[in-house]
Amino acid sequence: MAVLKVLEYGDPVLRKEAEKVHKVSAKIQKLISDMFDTMYDQQGVGLAAPQVGVLKRLFVLDCTTPEQNLPQMVMINPAIVKKSGAIRSKEGCLSFPGVWTEVKRYENIVVRYMDQKGKRQELAVDGGGLLSRAIQHELDHLNGVLFVDHALDETEANEQLGEHNLPPIDPTRIVEEPDLDHVLMGN
Ligand code: NI
Predict the structure, then answer these.
(1) DSSP code of 3?
(2) Which listed residue (138, 163, 176, 177) is catalytic?
(3) Which of 11, 95, 104, 126 has the greatest number of CB atoms lying within 10 Å of its CB?
(4) How remote is the CA of residue 176 from the centroid of ligand 1, in Å?
(5) Per-block mean pLDDT, blocks of 10 residues, the chain (187 long)
(6) Where are the domains of the chain?
(7) What is the pTM of this model?
(8) Residue 156 annotated to the active site
């Protein structure tokens, strides 16, 4: 068991693009195992490799809730190949201790990825539940995108960040999502 250090918002590594994983080596298997240990230790539902300082395209998830039992998941080199609908989602992130704010997400997604055994997988997740939102959140980390870049209310998000001694939103990083705005704000 190894609990790794989770990088906090403001660390430049969190803004870097991660590299593709070419082989699920013993080193990658060890990383995955340590990432699960770290995620459970911090009571998170997902953790991406860049958050522990490793710029590789993979993340781990455990989105089990009292309502729905789900297996542990590992997604390597993931890509969202289909997305539709829009929802508001109140999210936090292990790299933003104590911060929770509403963000815009797609409701339905189809994700392709490689699992821990190196097998190609495709998963459709409808209905905007925790799993759909977590996949979008964690996949963003692999591209240096953070949940506050999707904030519905930048002022509110900045208040939250300030209260927790974290840097404000970087306006140059805000993700333009006219298709989501169209549904969520009716414009
Ligand atoms: Ni996160």
Answers:
(1) P
(2) 138
(3) 95
(4) 19
(5) 95 98 97 98 97 98 90 97 95 97 96 97 93 97 98 95 97 91 79
(6) 12-185
(7) 0.96
(8) no
